[in-house]
Amino acid sequence: MQELDRLKRNPSRIEEEIKNLHDKILEVGGDKLQAQKSKVDQIKEQIVIANEWITESQAAKLKMERDITKLEDSLSEGKSKLQELDNEIQQFKKAIEQKEITICSIRATFDETKTVFIQININSVILTINLLLINFLYLGIGKEKREFG
Fold first, then answer.
1. For the chain, which residues make up each domain, given as ranges?
2. pTM: predicted TM-score of the whole model, two decimal places
């Protein structure tokens, strides 16, 4: 107990003794200790740098994984939209083919109608000419009868 009281009264003396012991330890093996301490400090610094690099790499990896997921989703949506557009194109092609068939049918009907119309017009012209000839002959014959009669 007395020893404890004596130590409590003079703490600076204890600290000084500790410092002296520390200095003696450094004198005896100080160079080796300093070299090892320096190596330990360098390794600690490398560990800190490596941990920072790992943290940055993990963050970059997570970002890339999110980007990959977004790109895969976008690609999937693009493929789906492309399929929809391909389906629409096929429907438009079928509609165009049907319209072409209809146009060909209308054109054939038009050509037939045009031919019939031309034939009717020709027949009408022939009929008109015949009627004119008949009238001419009739009028001409009638005129001759009138002159003789």
1. 2-148
2. 0.44
Per-residue tokens: 127 = 């009929």
Alpha-carbon span 25 to 33, nearest angstrom: 9
For residue 67, with 0-12 CB atoms within 10 Å meaning exposed, 13-18 middle and 19 or more buried, which class applies? exposed
Q: How high is the pLDDT of residue 119? A: 92
What letter would DSSP give residue 100?
H
Mean pLDDT of 87-101: 96
Six-digit token string for 112:
């037939």
- Would you call 126 exposed, middle or buried from its count of C-beta atoms within 10 A (0-12, 13-18, 19+)? exposed
The token pair that represents 148 in the structure block: 């003789």
12 vs 34: CA distance, rounded Å? 27
